[in-house]
Amino acid sequence: MAKFPDSFLWGGAIAANQAEGAYLTAGKGLSTSDMQPHGIFGPLVNRTDNQSFIKDTAIDFYHQYKTDIPLFAEMGFTCLRTSIAWSRIFPQGDEIIPNEAGLAFYDDLFDEMAKYNIQPVITLSHYEMPYHLVTQYGGWGNRKTIAFFEHYACTVFERYKDKVKLWLTFNEINMSLHAPMTGVGLPSDSSSSEVYQAIHHQLVASARVVKACHDIIPDAQIGNMLLGGLVYPLTCKPDDVWEAMTENRKWLFFGDVQCRGQYPGYMLRYFSDNQINLTITDEDIHDLKNTIDFISFSYYMTGCITADKDEYEKRRGNIFTMVPNPHLESSEWGWQIDPKGIRTLLNILWDRYQKPLFIVENGLGAVDEITPEGNINDDYRIQYINDHLIQVHEAIQDGVDIMGYTSWGPIDIVSASKAEMSKRYGFIYVDRNDQGDGTLERKRKKSFYWYQGIIKSQGELLR
Ligand code: BG6
After folding, report:
1. What pLDDT does residue 50 have?
2. What are phi and psi of 448, to 5 degrees?
3. pLDDT given for residue 47 in this prediction
4. How many angstroms separate the alpha carbon of residue 233 from the centre of ligand 1?
5. Burial of 306 (0-12, 13-18, 19+ CB in 10 A)
6. C-alpha distance from residue 1 to each of 90, 131, 399, 458 (Å)
7. CA-to-CA distance for 197 and 45, rounded, in angstroms?
8. Pairing verdict, β 442-444 and 119-125
9. How far is it, in rounded angstroms, from Cα 80 to Cα 410?
10. Alpha carbon distance, N-terminus to C-terminus of the chain
């Protein structure tokens, strides 16, 4: 196996709401994530009833990062992706003055990473926003949220301009189509018009903060973040091929706007065919021209689609309503494992945009067992990441410009979709179960040593 380029960033990715816990500590306000304790597709709860939920403590990264970061360093990480919890900085979202305790927390976190030469890759909003913005303003449905977000982003750009040089705007920005509360702070029964208007506001906000980032930190790079939901036609029937193209455009649309600075024609047709009348101002059109520097994306699985409605209804499977691919195996959670798909996706994105790509999430959620000797032999996870990295390397050979790879959840964290601990992605085990019991002790899995070897050898040990 040939080596990966020297400049290739190696690391892992977590998110504030799935790792930090401390959900009301040091002035933090309630976020949409706090109000959706059963996962990103789950209902909102009333938090006045004194119940506690798993994300409230998560893996207590807020208090334990000083011992977690050395573990990442031990694996050889050159970067760590995490997010800033917006509601730590602006507890309600509409304040003028930020919460100093929240800012200080991330100062310390980034300083700790710097001690180990781990470069921060920071998502401005990972599946959360201050809940007050939802109740008082209607989330991203309200144009005012653009200014609140811009104020938040400029505050953290100013504060961390010497510490953070790689930024991402919205995690999996296309997720709003599947989980409107998580993505844009809208109720799950919102109409398509409402959701796309909120998405429009978010796209404008994303573009505006790209400009702000370039102005405030000229030597930084800022990217988007897409859920890379590659869909294949179930058969080679032309109708199925077209259906797959349409399905892929549902998420590529976000990348098209963020990379090209304008709405693609196919989307304008979609809006017109579906009586979706968006309010798009001249200023929005101007702002959208602030395009991103690089594209980041998550990749876990692929799926199939068919134009045959009966067949589709009969066979559709997972959360993204795709038809299972008969040629692929699935994880315990029904996510289909497709290493070759990441090469295809990387090539598609490179051909389409000619901008550097960053794989900021990939990995296998699985149940881990501890042997009587106290080991966790997660060969299935090693296999999954090995096979994907081989395809990433192939894509580099294909000429694709790839900045780096951060595996999802290098330390076990709370699952976003299920809000459970038992769906583990980590190289580091955390002693906590779905009921919230456990010591929170950290333990190296077999994959820890494997990933360490891969990073050390710059990929030469991949098989
Ligand atoms: C991505 C999200 O969709 O997938 C992460 O950006 C999430 O937040 C990850 O954790 C894996 O999903 P899950 O549901 O297995 O945690």
Report:
1. 77
2. -60, -50
3. 85
4. 25
5. buried
6. 47, 48, 17, 10
7. 25
8. unpaired
9. 9
10. 7
Distances (CA, A) of 125 to 19, 154, 169, 214: 14, 13, 6, 18
Q: Is 98 helix (H, G, I), strand (E, B) or coil?
A: coil
What is the predicted pLDDT for the residue at 356?
A: 98
Determine the Cα–Cα distance for residues 127 and 255; give it in Å rounded to an integer: 18
36 C-beta neighbours (distance < 10 Å), count: 25
Please report the sign of the dihedral spanned by the C-alpha atoms of residue 229, residue 318, residue 32, residue 274: positive
For residue 198, give the amino acid letter: A
Residue-wise burial string across 426-447, b where 16 or more C-beta atoms lie within 10 A, e elsewhere: bbbbbebeeeeeeeeebbbbbb
Active site residues: 172, 361
Per DSSP, 332 falls in state T
Query: Rounded to whole angstroms, how far apart are CA atoms 155 and 47?
Result: 29
CA of 381 to the centre of ligand 1 (A): 16
Whole-structure pTM value: 0.98
Helix runs in 28-169, H state only: 32-35, 54-57, 61-75, 86-89, 100-115, 131-137, 144-159
Residues 6+ apart with CB under 8 A from 142: 201
Q: Is there a contact between 447 and 380 (Cβ–Cβ < 8 Å)? A: no
Structure tokens at 1: 């196996």
Which of 140, 144, 142 is CA-nearest to residue 129?
A: 140
The answer to whether residues 16 and 83 touch, using CB atoms and an 8 Å cutoff, is: yes
Give yes or no for a contact between 247 and 231, defined as CB atoms under 8 angstroms apart.
yes
Q: Which atom of ligand 1 is nearest to the CA of 423?
A: 15
Residue ranges for the chain with pLDDT beneath 70: 1, 49, 317-321
User: Would you say the CB of residue 33 lies under 6 angstroms from ligand 1?
Assistant: no
**Angle of helix 379-397 relative to helix 339-353, nearest 10 degrees?**
30
20, 176, 298, 407, best to mutate for ligand 1 pocket (most atoms within 8 Å of CB): 298
SS3 7: coil
130: nearest Cα among 71, 172, 88: 88
Q: CA quadruple 146, 200, 169, 125: dihedral positive or negative? A: positive
pLDDT value at position 298? 98
Atom of ligand 1 nearest to the CA of 39: 14
What pLDDT was estimated at residue 11?
Answer: 98
Ligand 1 atom at minimal distance to the Cα of residue 365: 15
Cβ–ligand 1 distance for 88 under 6 Å, the answer: no
Centre of ligand 1 to C-alpha 417, Å, is 6
For residue 117, report the distance from its CA to the centre of ligand 1, in Å.
Answer: 26
